TrEMBL record:
Keywords on record: DNA-binding, Transcription, Transcription regulation
Domain HTH iclR-type as annotated: residue spans: 36-98
UniProt KW DNA-binding keyword: yes
Record flagged with keyword Secreted: no
InterPro entries: GAF-like_dom_sf (IPR029016), HTH_MetabolicPath_Reg (IPR050707), Tscrpt_reg_IclR_C (IPR014757), Tscrpt_reg_IclR_N (IPR005471), WH-like_DNA-bd_sf (IPR036388), WH_DNA-bd_sf (IPR036390)
Species in which this protein is naturally found: Paraburkholderia eburnea
UniProt GO molecular function: DNA binding; DNA-binding transcription factor activity
IclR-ED domain ranges (all copies): 99-282
Protein's recorded name: IclR family transcriptional regulator
Length: 284
């Protein structure tokens, strides 16, 4: 009992630190208590490489981070082994792989992208009287994450959740066109053929990507369905790389009904992607 009274009296007379000061001290104590130097080094490397479009040599990384060469070497080897970082073909430069990009697809931001895209896609479908779908890169091919049907009697749609080809579709080529050379090479290395995929040589694919970059979108006859013209625009992230592709498989009416033309639908789809990109910029 005496000990309890003494403790209470001592608490009454002892001045407590200000709440803000206590919170700051607790945060500092936690930071010191739970330090993980190896994790910090790995994160430092990832954050540094995220700002470099063409990658860096090991010597450049060592100099930029102010660490010794041996610890950077060990950390880079582990990041390469876990596929967060990739070496150039010559083996002298390191760049981020697409693993973080792929992991982000399983994260709530992808859900926000879908939530933002669907109303805009619905408006396009109503105005253009065509269907449209949104696809993202996933493990060597594309995954359709959102799809909206047109309002008319006739239409064509790609089923939600479908995996479609990376190299023979308008969506795939558009996403490839807006990647760095290193990321494009890794995507192609991870690529596996889907059912019915049309083979294309590397030179033709590079030419197609250059054309898409020059025009800002893809518009070509479908290589899967006769009579369909695929319109695709890239949905760009803050770094200028495509995080998704919005595609309209355009069908031309040949009866007496006057529907929006191919040129009009192309303009509408471009405006839709521009509006979606404004949402993405605001979020960033």
């Amino acid at each position: 009992m005496r000990g309890a009274l003494t403790w209470k009296n001592r608490m009454k007379t002892k001045k407590a630190p200000a709440p803000d000061a206590r919170d700051e001290k607790d945060e500092k104590d936690d930071a010191d208590r739970y330090r993980a130097p190896a994790l910090d080094k790995g994160l430092d490397i990832l954050e540094l490489l995220a700002e470099q479009r063409g990658g860096l040599t090991r010597a450049e990384i060592t100099k930029a981070l102010g660490r010794n060469a041996s610890e950077i070497y060990r950390m880079l080897e582990r990041l390469v082994a876990r596929q967060y970082v990739m070496r150039s073909e010559a083996g002298d430069r390191y760049a981020l792989s697409l693993k973080l990009f792929a992991l982000a697809h399983r994260h709530p931001p992808m859900e926000r992208l879908i939530a933002e895209a669907l109303p805009l896609m619905q408006r396009f479908a109503n105005d253009a009287e065509q269907s449209c779908h949104l696809a993202v890169y996933d493990r060597g091919n594309l995954l359709v994450i959102a799809q909206v049907d047109g309002p008319g009697t006739w239409g064509i749609a790609v089923r939600l959740g479908s995996r479609v080809g990376l190299v023979d579709t308008s969506s795939g080529r558009t996403i490839l066109a807006y990647q760095s050379r290193e990321q494009r090479a890794q995507m192609l290395a991870e690529h596996t053929k889907v059912k019915g995929e049309v083979t294309i040589d590397h030179a033709a694919l590079e030419s197609a990507c250059e054309h898409i970059q020059a025009t800002g979108f893809s518009r070509k006859d479908s290589q899967q369905i006769f009579g369909v013209t695929d319109l695709t625009f890239p949905v760009l992230g803050p770094s200028g790389q495509a995080i998704a592709a919005l595609t309209c498989p355009f069908l031309k009416r040949i009866d007496d009904y006057v529907a929006p033309s191919l040129d009009e639908a192309t303009h509408m789809l471009g405006q839709t992607v521009q509006a979606l990109s404004m949402f993405r910029e605001a979020e960033a």
